[in-house]
Specification:
The complex is a heterodimer of chains A (418) and B (146). Chain A is α/β, with parallel strands linked by helices. Chain A has helices at 5-11, 17-33, 58-69, 87-94, 100-103, 107-116, 144-154, 165-172, 202-212, 233-245, 261-266, 282-290, 315-331, 347-353, 357-364, 381-384, 393-397, 406-413; strands at 38-40, 45-48, 77-80, 119-122, 174-176, 188-194, 218-221, 255-256, 271-280, 305-313, 340-345, 368-370, 388-390, 402-403. Classes of the chains: A alpha/beta (418), B alpha/beta (146).
Chain lengths: 418, 146
Amino acid sequence: MKLSLEEKQILKGEQGESKRTILKTLIDYGTLLGAKNFVPITTSIGQMHFSYGTKAFDGAISILKKLTLHGIKPNIELIANPKPFTISYGKKILKANLNYKKFFNRQETLEEELNKLNVNSFSCGCFEQKDKIVYGEIAAWSESVAVTYLNSVIGARTNENPPIIDLFCSILKKTLNYGLLLDENRKAGIAIKLEVKKEMDPQLLGETIAKKCEGKIPIIYGLEKILKPSLDEPTLAFLKDFSAGFSCGKIRLFHINGITPEVRRLKKQIIKTNIKTVDIDSQELEKIKQDYEVLWKNPDSKAKICIIGCPHLSLYQLVNLTNEIGWELRQNKRKKLKIKTFFLTSSLTLKKFKELPEFKELLKYGGIISTFCPLMGMNSKKISNTNIITNSNKLRCFSTARFFEEEQIIKQICGRRG
Amino acid sequence: MKVSFKGRSVLPGVIRGQALVSHGLLNLNKSFHRVLLKKSNNLTVEDKKSDIYQKNISGKVLCVENFDSSNVDVLFLLSIFERACIAPICILSSKQLPNSILAGLIIAKNFYKTEIVVVDKLGDELLLKIETGDIISVCDDCVIVE
C-alpha cells in the first residue's frame, strides 16, 4: 500500500506503539483486500459494532483495555450498536430468571471501555444522523443496515468494516480505499423492474431484490411511484427498513430511480452499460415469504412475544404504529394488546417520543418501549425456544423469530380473530 | 504419494501438523460461543450441524471449505487467539476467507503475536484430498499432504 509521510511516521512508532500496531493491522488487512492507500474519514460520526459484553468476547475487550490504558481514543464521536436487553427485560421476555450475569457478564466492563473510547450513544438508528452526514462524505461504518443506508440513502461512502477495524479507522481518522469508496464499484450492474401494485413491505422487498441481484448493485425502477424524492419522513422510514432487507445478503448499496441521491446527481453515469433487467412482482415476494422456515418447536402454537423495531423505529414510525394500533384495538373492542409487544427505538428518538401524546397512548395499550437490540442474546436456549413474532426480516434471518408483514402483525397483537 | 496445493498466503509461516477436516461452512458463533464462556482448555465444536461436532480444534491444522461468516467472527477469533493454547495452529480454506475472518486473524496476529499460519483460496480439490488425521506441511502459500 502507498503510505503518506504521516503514515510512515506512525509505522515507525513516532506516535507510540499502540497507533503503530493499529496502522500495521489496517495495512495487513487492506493489502489482502487490494486497498491501494488510506483516505481521510470526513464524517463527524463513527460506528462501533461491539456493544455486547460477554466472556466469549474477552479477547476483544482486552484490546480495548490496552488502548484506553494508553489514552488512545478516536477523534470523532462514536455510536455503538444498541445494548443487549437488561435483566428486567430478560424477565419480561422469558417470564423466567435469565442468568444475565452468565450471558452479559462483561457488559459493565465493556461499557466502561466504550465510554473511554468516545462512545456517546448506542443505536442502530442511522436515520437520526441525517443532518450530520452529507453526500459524498467518507466514513468507516460497520453495522449492515447503517452501511447500506449511508451508501444508498445519504450518498456518503463506506465499506462494511468488521468490528474493531471500525474502531481502528476512527482512531486514525483514516479508512482503507477500496470497495464502495471507489466510483467504479458504485455503479449499478443490474436493473430491477418492480411491479408496484400496493404498499409493499420494505424489508421483504429489500431481501427479495438482494436475492435477485446476483451480487451486483441494483438500480431499481418502480419505487419512485410510492416514494418521494424530497426524502420525507415516510420515505426515509421505508428506506431504512428497505436497507435492513439487504442485510440478509452481501449487497450494501442500491440505487432507486429518481429517489436516491447518486442517481439523481449522476443519472445514467451511475449505471453500467448493457446491464440485465430482472422483473419482480408481488408473486415473487409471496414466494420468498412462503420459503421462510418456521423455526418454532411447534409451528401451530401461539405467539408469546412480538418484537417491532429491528432496526430501531423512527419517530414517524412510532407515532404511525401507535395510531394504527389504536384504530385496530377499537375495531376489536379491546383496550390492551393481546400479545406482549416490544417497540424498540434509540434513546434519542425515545426522548422525543416521550414528549408526544402517542407515547402515553402506546403505554396505555400495554406496549413496552425500549432501546435494546433484539438480536443479541437470541442464541440463548431460553430465548430461541420462545415463540416470537416480528415484522423484522433481519430479526427473522438471525433468530427463531417468525416473520409477518406489519399489517398482519398489528392484527395479531390487537387480537383480531381469523 | 504427496499432494500439494497452492493458495493465497493470509498469514505466512512454516508449520507441520495433523489435519481436522470440515466439509461444511463452520459457524463460529454456534460452534464456540458456549465453549468460550466456559474457559475450557479445549476448543470443541458445539454446533450439532457441523461434521466436526464435538471435535477439538486446538493444535490442529483446521481445513475448511469456508466459514459461515458474520461480523462477530472477529470477536470470537480474538478470544480464541488470546489463549494460544486453545487455538488451531493453522487454517486452510478452499475458498476465499470472508473479511470478518481475515480481520480477526490479522488483529490477533498484531495484538497477540499469534503464530498461526493461514492459507485460503486453495481450491475445491483440497477437501477431496485431505482427510482428518493426515499430516500436513505448510510453507507460506504452499500446502503439502504427506
